Please model this.
Amino acid sequence: MNEDLSDELKFERLERKPPIHLWSPNLSGDIDILIKRDGSWWHDGAKINRKPLVKFFAGLLRREVDGEYYLVTPEEKWRITVELLPLMVIGLKKSNCSRVPCLNAVLNTDEIVPINSRYKIQQSVGTGGIASIVLWNGLSGFFNRSSWYELVNLCDDNFFIHSYGERFKLY
Model:
């Protein structure tokens, strides 16, 4: 399959996530799930090593206006703990589309997210100013060390990243 077509299909899947923004269950309580600073997920003190389970939970995760993170279903809402940010950019995919550079962030959940006007690069407040990408449902994903260096290497002389016709300033 053509790589650009494969990426387009992955982008379409981003739009088909569960509609958790429409779900409004009452708080069920706190659940002992922790997302550590290194992006690893833990439950009851044990690391969750099954990537499909992490991906499933990540698809039900949202951050609300109170700044807290919740796993949400139509009937339940469980507060979890996140040390830094819930998702992590582990790599970048570069391509040219319509003669402009196009960068796509590869998340630790295997999702590929276009760095564009919807999914922007920002300096995250409350995380020591590390770079992150704005995602869906109030979530963000931080750039791990290697993806950050990769991003910096793509900057122009004024520390701007160009992607999908947009400019993002790196500090």
Observations:
- The chain has a mean pLDDT of 89.
- The radius of gyration is 17 Å.
